[in-house]
Amino acid sequence: MRRQRDLDAQPDPGYDPSHWPRVSLTVDLVVLTIRPDTGFSVLLVERGGRPFKGYLALPGGFVFPDERILDAARRELQEETGIEPGFDHLEQLATYGDPGRDSRDRVVSVAYLAFEARAGDVRPGGDAAKAMWHSVSKIKRNHLAFDHGQILADGLERARNRLEYTTYATAFLDSPFTMTALREVYEAVWDVRLDPRNFHRKVTSSDGFVIPTGEKLPTSKGRSPQLYAPGGAEHIIPPMRRSDMS
Amino acid sequence: MRRQRDLDAQPDPGYDPSHWPRVSLTVDLVVLTIRPDTGFSVLLVERGGRPFKGYLALPGGFVFPDERILDAARRELQEETGIEPGFDHLEQLATYGDPGRDSRDRVVSVAYLAFEARAGDVRPGGDAAKAMWHSVSKIKRNHLAFDHGQILADGLERARNRLEYTTYATAFLDSPFTMTALREVYEAVWDVRLDPRNFHRKVTSSDGFVIPTGEKLPTSKGRSPQLYAPGGAEHIIPPMRRSDMS
DNA sequence: GTAATAGTGTCTTTGAGACATTATCTA
DNA sequence: TAGATAATGTCTCAAAGACACTATTAC
């Protein structure tokens, strides 16, 4: 510690960064979706190499020397899910870089959070072997590799918050979608039941959340539901209320 | 790009990270406070070295090889403000690491956001020369070094959001504080005027936001105000409403 | 007393929660 | 027609905004 303070006590922070110790840079992805079979789900890969060989982990990889970090996240997402960037949502989550989180070296990982529509029935694992969707409620977080359990927990909390204050729930759906489908996104992510009528009123009265396409979805039975598209607004004002508080 | 894809197409992401290109790691700090003279203010330093010599920049520095990133942020904060960690607030903001943001090398910076009480009248610049508080409203963001204008903008947005949903406004104040002082924090950060009576009702009815100490503050004129301490809760439920929407 | 600031009470409006009713579709 | 699902309307209550009034201090 003394040594470190002495280092820092040099006249100015402006000297050559290449003289400083350097770290490896990766991105990790918390990719979330809603599926008919597994419900609210996250994409996990099985690690083939050491450390944590055989453990489940978040997909991710190294950032290339001249690549923007966001572009690295986009690239990994495309490789893992096969989905072209479109109506999905991708945002930076947080950065994890404690010494010792990777036993081999000092690795700093910038985590990203992605919301994916199923887009038909995309099968993950284009490049990565054994990439699979896992039901969020069934994952044992301390069985994940590295500190990925913590990253996943942070990502889930962020996702639940995003649905309160933003319209990003639509990113879980292909457009156009029904009001019921949008409500089921909320119910899956928040793990609650919402009143369909109050939900409908809240969404339609929130300016720019959704716009009706005028089309209706033919169904096998019952009244055909109105179809909607994302309305362009990012924020819900006032926010969605989640009476269940964390 | 082709070369990069080929690299990535190797069998597994588990090989030795030390074989990958590495980056320099820094922390940058958005330190905010409320001051009698400059109001809502941010701590900036004048750069002594290249690049951006003479420009204003956020305080920050390199992360030591065996140091946690959060600890590096705490250390820089202590060095720049001289304040011991106490009732202040420090959280990770975001990470900025685009190639080219530092002309010398690939430098990835993890930005932190800090709320500081003035603590008497702390004079920044213990170690760092020419560290000064600058009124947030008067800063020309594109005159800051590197991408610090963007980091500052992101920090301000985060700070304004934090006051809506959390009790962190108390971190701007020494305890105990008056209700008027707390309201002035909101008015400074949001740049609005708030009704003192509605504000008082909202704060006192929000569970765990503040607790009255029972003491009163002697004043030169007018009724002596009740003193409060932070109440322990982190979240305001329901949140503070900022009718001015961004 | 006056001047100044702190704190409380009341009315109105907005919006969330609960829940009954009407509309539209298929078989 | 029945059965199923979608959409709308109404009532109640909680909370935010506007604003008048009372309380406490120094002089």
Strand content of chain A: 25-35%
Helix content of chain A: 10-25%
Which regions of chain A are unreliable across 5 or more consecutive residues at pLDDT < 50?
1-14
How far from one another are the termini of chain A?
38 Å
Brief rundown of the structure:
Two copies of one chain form a homodimer. Chain A is of the alpha+beta class. In chain A, about 25% of the residues lie in helices and about 25% in strands.
Can you characterise this structure?
The structure is a homodimer of 246-residue chains. The first copy, chain A, has 246 residues and is α+β, with helices and mostly antiparallel strands. Helices cover 24% and strands 26% of the residues of chain A. In chain A, strands 1, 2, 3, 4, 5, 6 and 7 form a seven-stranded mixed beta sheet that branches. A three-stranded antiparallel beta sheet of chain A has the order 8-10-9. In chain A, strand 1 and strand 2 form a beta hairpin. At the A-B interface, helix 1, strand 1, strand 4, helix 2 and strand 5 of A face helix 1, strand 1, strand 4, helix 2 and strand 5 of B. Strand 1 of chain A pairs antiparallel with strand 1 (22-35) of chain B. The structure holds a DNA duplex (27 and 27 nucleotides).
